[in-house]
Amino acid sequence: MNTLNTPSSQNDQSAAKSPGGASTLAGRLDQAQPYALGLFRVVIGLLFACHGAASLFGVLGGSAGGGTIPAGTWPGWYAAVIQLGAGGLVLFGLGTRSAAFLASGSMAYAYFKVHQPESLFPLQNGGESAALFCWAFALLVFTGPGALALDGLFRSRVGAGSTTRRTNEDREEQGAPVTA
C-alpha cells in the first residue's frame, strides 16, 4: 500500500516525533498539569484554612454570627479544627490525600446535615461552598497534590532508602555480597 506524503500527514508525523508531544497545545497543557494541580491545591487549602481560622480565632470577620465558636461545641468547633488543620496540610502538600479525604467527608457531612434539610439544591439552601469544597477535596484525593508539594521532599528521601533496601534484598537472593 502506497501512502501519500501529504501536508497533513507531515504535520501528524512532526507532532508525533516531538518529545512528549510538546509541539501541540495539548502537549503543552499536559506538561503544565502538575503545576496547575499544585496551584489548585494551594488555593483550595488556603480558602479552607481561612474558614477554620475565622471560626476558631475570629479573624477575617469571624464565624457566621461574628466572633468565635466556643471550644468543644458540636459540630461547629470540630468542623473549624478540621478546616484549619486539613486546609493547612493541603495548602502545603503534606499528607494531601488523607487530609483531603477528611476535609471532603466533613463537607459532605456539613452539606447533608446542615444545608440539605433546608432545601434540595445548594443554590436554595446556602450549601454551595460546602458542595464545592467537598468535590474539590474529593478530586485531590484521587489526583494527589500535584507539583510543589512538601510530600515530594519526603517521598524522594523515603524512595531512595527503599530502593537501596530492595537492591540489597535482591543481592542477598542472588547470593552476592551486600554492602551497607
Features:
mainly alpha; 180 residues; single chain
Tell me the Rg in angstroms.
24 Å
Q: Separation of termini?
A: 60 Å
Strand content: under 5%
Approximate shape: globular
Number of strands: 0
**In DSSP terms, counting alpha (H) and pi (I) runs of 4 or more, how many helices?**
7
Short description:
With 180 residues, this protein is mainly alpha-helical. The protein contains seven helices and no strands.
Describe this structure in words.
It is a single chain. The chain is mainly alpha-helical and 180 residues long. The chain is 69% helix and 0% strand. It is built from seven helices and no strands. Helix 2 (25-57) packs antiparallel against helix 3 (76-92), helix 2 (25-57) packs across helix 6 and helix 4 (96-115) packs antiparallel against helix 6. The longest helix has 33 residues, at 25-57. The protein is globular and about 50 Å long. It starts with 6 loop residues before the first helix and ends in a 6-residue tail after the last helix. Residues 1-18, 162-166 and 170-174 have low confidence and may be disordered.
